[in-house]
């Protein structure tokens, strides 16, 4: 089915507000309705766009928004993982975690739809100017949930965690795939630079990372986090509806994963908005649940 492309969306990267790493959410009296607007927005889009795009603003927007959305998903996951150091989370919490992991995988795919040449001459150059060893390993919100992605939480092998385990494995496959796709020689900036991966990340590096992705640390309520997630989904859906997942750049498409490939990433290709909207609803419901209890 072909999605109605609609008018050209204004895609402007915006500041993201997140609590300092490890700080709890600010309490809030805001009881907005439990239907996130992301689920009401059109979730259909064409995988291959037919409207020629201006690559500079579009792929900059996707790189920043895709990362910011990942940070919010990581932060939402952090609360559940933190509350369950040893015991298996509830069914609803596991469902929410799996949806967030799959949504992060969808964001890896969305961010890396940038054509490889454009990535190397624009985005990667800017990240290297920010710091020669710039790395995803510096992401402040990833650190507290890294052990989940590394399979190090003690309950991940429990039968109830099967879907979550599969989502984590899919995420590893997606990260390796997009890394190989954009940087076929396989060497990250961190590995290419003189700096070896450090065991700990300095506060300065975390700030440089936040700063690149327009992320400001200040007290934020869970309601505000959900609202920021929700508004970005609406923008992302408009982008995909107008430009397709793989936009037409100078008469060519640059697919990362094709819908007909047999990989476990395949359902993400036409399900980016659906996956993300569902995760946002589950995060939002968890917030309301906590607010009621
Ligand atoms: C699309 C957006 C991307 C995101 C959100 C992302 C995220 C991350 C995160 C969170 C880590 C830390 C993993 C850990 O400590 O366990 C990481 C590490 C890493 N990423 Fe990515 N990544 C992205 C793109 C890429 C690309 C394009 C490459 C291509 C080379 C890449 C290669 C690596 C490598 C080799 C590491 C290991 C540490 C290092 O050498 O920097 N990633 N990434």
What tags apply to this protein structure?
single chain, 293 residues, mainly alpha, two-stranded parallel ribbon, 11 helices, 4 strands, 53% helix, globular, binds protoporphyrin IX containing FE
Please characterize this protein's 3D structure.
By secondary structure, this protein is mainly α. The chain has one domain. Helix content is 53%, strand content 5%. The strands form two sheets. Strands 1-3 form a two-stranded parallel sheet. The protein has a two-stranded parallel sheet with strand order 2-4. The model has no long low-confidence stretch (mean pLDDT 91). The site of protoporphyrin IX containing FE has 20 residues, from helix 2, helix 3, helix 6 and helix 7.
Summarize the entry for a quick read.
The protein is mainly alpha-helical and about 290 residues long.
User: What share of residues is helical?
Assistant: 40-55%
| Number of strand segments | 4
What's the multimeric state?
A: single chain
Low-confidence stretches: none
Largest sheet: 2 strands, parallel
Q: Quickly count the helices.
A: 11
Q: Strands of the largest sheet, in order across it?
A: 1-3
The structure class reads mainly alpha
Q: What is the N-to-C succession of helices and strands?
A: EHEHHHHHHHEHEHH
State the end-to-end distance. Answer: 43 Å
Radius of gyration: 18 Å
């Amino acid at each position: 089915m072909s999605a109605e492309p609609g008018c050209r969306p204004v895609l402007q990267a915006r500041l993201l507000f997140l609590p300092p790493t490890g700080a709890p959410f600010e309490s809030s009296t805001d009881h907005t309705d439990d239907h996130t607007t992301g689920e009401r927005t059109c979730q259909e889009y064409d995988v291959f766009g037919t409207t020629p795009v201006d690559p500079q603003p579009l792929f900059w927007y996707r790189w920043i928004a895709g990362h910011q959305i990942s940070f919010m998903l990581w932060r939402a996951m952090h609360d559940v993982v933190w509350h369950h150091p040893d015991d298996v989370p509830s069914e609803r919490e596991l469902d929410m975690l799996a949806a967030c992991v799959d949504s992060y995988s969808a964001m890896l795919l969305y961010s890396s739809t940038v054509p490889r040449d454009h990535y190397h001459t624009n985005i990667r150059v800017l990240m290297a100017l920010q710091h020669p060893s710039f790395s995803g390993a510096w992401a402040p919100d990833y650190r507290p949930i890294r052990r989940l992605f590394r399979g190090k939480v003690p309950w991940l092998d429990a039968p109830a965690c099967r879907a979550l385990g599969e989502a984590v494995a899919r995420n590893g496959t997606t990260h390796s795939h997009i890394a190989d796709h954009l940087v076929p020689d396989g060497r990250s900036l961190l590995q290419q630079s003189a700096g070896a991966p450090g065991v700990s990340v300095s506060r300065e590096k975390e700030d440089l990372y936040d700063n690149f992705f327009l992320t400001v640390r200040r007290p934020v309520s869970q309601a505000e986090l959900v609202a920021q997630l929700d508004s970005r989904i609406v923008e992302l859906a408009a982008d995909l509806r107008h430009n397709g997942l793989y936009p037409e750049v100078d008469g060519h498409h640059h697919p990362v994963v094709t819908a007909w490939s047999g990989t476990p990433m395949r359902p993400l290709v036409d399900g980016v908005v659906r996956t993300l909207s569902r995760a946002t609803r589950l995060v939002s419901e968890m917030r309301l649940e906590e607010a009621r209890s």
